[in-house]
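Changelog note: in this version the structure field was regenerated for every chain. One regenerated record is shown below for reference.
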Amino acid sequence: MSSLNTSIAAINYSNSVFYQFWSYLLFCLGIVGHSLNFYVFTRPTLRSNPCVRYFLASTISGLLVTLINVLLRLLQLMYKINTFGYSTVSCKILTFIVYCTKAQASWFIVLASIDRFLCSSPSTTVRAWSNLRVSCRSILCMPIIMGTFYIYVPIQFENIQTITRCPASQSVYPLFNGMWGLLIFSLGPSIIILIFGSLTIRHVQQTVRKTVPMKILTNNQTESRSLPQEQWRIRKSTDRQLIQMMIGQCIYYSLMSTPISVFWIYSSLRINVVPDALQLAKDTLFANITGALSLTGACTSFYCFTLSSQLFRKELMHLFHILRLRLNQINNP
């Protein structure tokens, strides 16, 4: 019996240490990373690109996840301040906000993949849909769409005063939430991104095959065409970098978001099983680990952008260069 109690205490302690460490780490990395994202995505060379607008919107969503989801879970699990359980109203509203903000970041990447597909299309009519006006309207519509996806949350969730929790009222909820999470939060956005990413790559390959080197006969013609060709080369390079960032985010989000859906499906399969104290401790640890991972993708998108794109790193190094010059000016007036 003593060894069993020791095992339970060790698991509970590991659970507490892990979530406290991971939450503080996500909060610090999220604040720093999203601040740098804001700088890069608002540079003159990038901010006029519709795809970058979607990345900027995803950054804002990720910052909301950092400031709302991470802090609420930290207060709930570490400091026993359960804002979800104060009343039925707080239960419904906060849970709805947490679900929407967590899923919204990945769906902005979906919009970015659709924009790359439109931008790379051989059809002029299709390419015309890739513009700032469409991107701004799509960004404004996304919170409404997310609210529609999670409209069941205010209906199903209710506060239980005796245990200060905010679960769903129906016993079939874990299976539904797991399957819905796979569709809306985990694999659904990733599959859509991969589909439009593949179609974008196909468009790019078709464009390359149709491109025929121009024969420039005179020096005057060479001078007049060199600038448009240089602009075309820069634009194509930027498009390739944005596609890399989009695919990198797709893989990263799917890896971080899938475990929480697996946990909900696992919970639904064991809904009629009464676990002992040791199994309950293990399940709680599993739930907190998968829950923390589900927040990681939205909080640390900056680091994925940095690894996947040379263009992003170039703009970031430009920032560091400016900061170094200003520090030198302050130290050596």
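Spot check on this record: Confidence is low (pLDDT under 50) at residues 212-227. The two ends are 71 Å apart (CA to CA).
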